[in-house]
Amino acid sequence: MNERLGLNSHRRIFVVDIENVIGSGAITENDVLRVKDSLEGLYSICSQDLVVIGVSHSKNVFSAHAWTSSRIVLKRGHDGADLALKKVLRDESVANRFREVVIVSGDGIFSEEAGLLRGTGLRVTIHAEIRRVATRLLRFASFANLTYENKVAVQLELAA
Question: Which residue from 100, 147, 153, 159 has the fewest beta carbons nearer than 10 Å?
Answer without folding.
Answer: 159
